[in-house]
Design a protein that fits this description.
Ubiquitin-like (UB roll), globular, 4-stranded mixed sheet, 3 helices, mainly beta, homodimer
Chain lengths: 134, 134
């Protein structure tokens, strides 16, 4: 195997051949979303300079933005101290990472009241029917 | 079951009863670390106001900071649009989240040169032997 792939061999892929990935926005440092990559997805991400994930539901490579145009331009790729989590620093085209039309997927906040619950605290910036063309 | 636990039932726990957790620093928005929680860990985190994870290697609850004093004071708990990832916004006591003595666990950056590789780009702020008392 070429030494070109040494960096991919460093990753501790899980029992499904996947690694968890956190996408963080360059500048704001907002956490935009969480997804998974397999070896091909990470190699393709580095090659393309845009985030390519592994869709566990569709069981195929998922070039984020392929349907919405909301690509993620990758500025940095990092791994953690255990070599088993990837952090992408990205520029989010369109400003929307979430399929619900929100900036970030993490819009549900825990509210610890009499009846603890999750509350939607971030606005929908664009209706999904205007993001995904039929 | 009491309605007090409705918020815990909202989480889509994986086949091992776990959910991925991203810890992000309040203020800087730096991503500090990634870990896992089971139902007890998340309930305990909310109750205590400090991060309690599930250690997959030790197979027990892990109150982050119990050995180092570097607790994580929880300011916000969020979940994503699929209810299967938790984001904690924390104040990192001691400023060190990583067991290597670094601020963040994500100190290895991908460098795409002639031979692509991971480079340590963030400094060790405190030697681990001074963090973990024998």
């Amino acid at each position: 195997m070429s030494t070109k792939n040494k960096w991919l061999n460093r990753i501790k892929w899980d029992e499904h051949g996947l690694v968890p990935v956190i996408a963080q926005e360059v500048g704001s440092n907002d956490v935009l979303m969480f997804a998974w990559m397999n070896r091909d997805a990470l190699a393709r991400t580095a090659e393309l300079g845009q985030a390519v994930y592994w869709s566990r539901s569709r069981k195929k490579l998922w070039h984020k933005g392929e349907e919405s145009g909301h690509f993620q331009q990758v500025h940095e790729i990092r791994i953690d101290c255990d070599d088993d989590v990837v952090l992408l620093k990205v520029e989010q085209v369109g400003g929307l990472a979430c399929h619900t039309g929100r900036h970030s997927c993490f819009f549900n906040k825990f509210l610890d009241g009499g009846e603890p619950d999750w509350i939607e605290v971030d606005p929908v910036l664009k209706a999904p029917e205007h993001i995904y063309k039929k």
